[in-house]
Amino acid sequence: MQKSILITGCSSGIGLATAEILHQRGYSVFAAVRRESDQTHLKEKGIESLILDINDSNSIQQGLAQVLAKTDGTLDALFNNAGFAIPGAVEDISRDMMRKQFETNVFGTMELTNRVIPLMRKQGHGRIIQNTSILGIITMPYRGAYNASKFALEGFTNTLRQELRHTPIHVSAIVPGPIHSAFRKNAQKNFQETLQGKASEHATTYQKMQRYFFTQENGKQRLALPASAVAKQVIRALESRSPRAHYYVGAAAHLFAILRRLLPDSALDWVIDKTHQEEAR
Fold first, then answer.
1. Per-residue pLDDT averaged across 262-276, rounded?
2. Is this prediction's pTM over 0.90?
3. How many whole angstroms separate alpha carbon 29 and alpha carbon 9?
4. H/E/C letters for each residue in the chain?
5. pLDDT tens-digit map of 37-79
6. Pairing between strand 246-249 and 77-80?
7. Which of 142, 146, 206, 248 does the annotation list as catalytic?
8. 40 exposed, middle or buried (CB, 10 Å; 0-12, 13-18, 19+)?
9. Contact 30, 48 (CB under 8 A)
10. Strand-pair partners of 77
11. Which residue, 122, 138, 211, 239, shows the most beta carbons closer than 10 Å to its own?
12. 146 class by beta-carbon count within 10 Å (0-12 exposed, 13-18 middle, 19+ buried)
């Protein structure tokens, strides 16, 4: 019998790659997107797709109901992948900007997760997989809103895992480092809509970011991996008899996770500063 999985944020990048690979592997994939054009693209690949906006409670409820109508009310797994970044210095991030960041990366994910837990309890099994980030383990400058949202998601995921420890529901976090996707392109769009051209003490840095952070999609991200690398770890979290709490993706994620445990804050800040400066070269 095919195992069913609902994946959010499947328009491109990690979500799309994971949906395609799991579909090829024989899973009954329900790929959630926000736009009908993306839904059509997925259906042309033979993948079941639905409209689910993680920022809209009604859309979450309707999307999940649509999935359950096709699975006789069951769901084997959920991969919470939807997310985005609002770049900028912390002092330039308004309350509305931070709220927007958390609505998608945290609150929508929490709501969808909490809706599937009773289903998994009833059916006697389930896998919940969160796509967090190495920036939920360590922080990088000028990513404050994103850092904060991913730290919150890490906290939520760790607590959920502890609370469900004595149930047949397994909770894992996928922790990617740099991944080739449309992530930076979308971050640039958010930057242009919120901070570009505004007076800021960080204006010089923002100009540099336009030259390096937003233009490394296919070139200068030397440690970046393809989105399929994340999909491979999702498979491990889905199919392992005893899934891990965390699956790190890429050398950078592994390295910084180790440094977080070994180094004092001042030393880790020095390493991150050097990394940030090297990235800007």
1. 93
2. yes
3. 13
4. CCCEEEECCCCCHHHHHHHHHHHHCCCEEEEEECCHHHHHHHHHCCCEEEECCCCCHHHHHHHHHHHHHHCCCCCCEEEECCCCCCCECHHHCCHHHHHHHHHHHHHHHHHHHHHHHHHHHHHCCEEEEEECCHHHCCCCCCEHHHHHHHHHHHHHHHHHHHHCCCCCEEEEEEEECCECCCHHHHHHHHHHHHCCCCCCCCHHHHHHHHHCHHHCCCCCCCCCECCHHHHHHHHHHHHCCCCCCEEEECHHHHHHHHHHHHCCHHHHHHHHHHHHHHHCC
5. 899 999 999 999 999 999 999 999 999 999 999 999 999 999 9
6. unpaired
7. 146
8. exposed
9. yes
10. 5, 127
11. 138
12. buried
pLDDT in tens, 126-170: 999 999 999 999 999 999 999 999 999 999 999 999 999 999 999
Q: Is 146 a catalytic residue?
A: yes
- The CA-atom distances, in angstroms, between 104 and each of 53, 100, 133, 146, 258 are 9, 7, 15, 11, 28
Token digits of residue 101: 């960041």
Spatial neighbors of 120 by CB under 8 A, at least 6 apart, are: 75, 126, 128, 168, 169
Res 19: pLDDT: 98
Q: What is the dihedral of CA 91, 96, 101, 102, to 10 degrees?
A: 110
Class of domain 4-279: alpha beta
Q: Which amino acid is at 43?
A: K
Mean pLDDT of all residues belonging to the chain:
91
User: Which of 178, 196, 189, 179 lies closest to 214 in space, CA to CA?
Assistant: 189
pLDDT for 217 equals: 47
pLDDT category of residue 203 using cuts at 50, 70 and 90: confident
- What are the extents of the domains in the chain? 4-279
User: 95 has which bridge partners?
Assistant: none
**Paired tokens of 177:** 């480092």
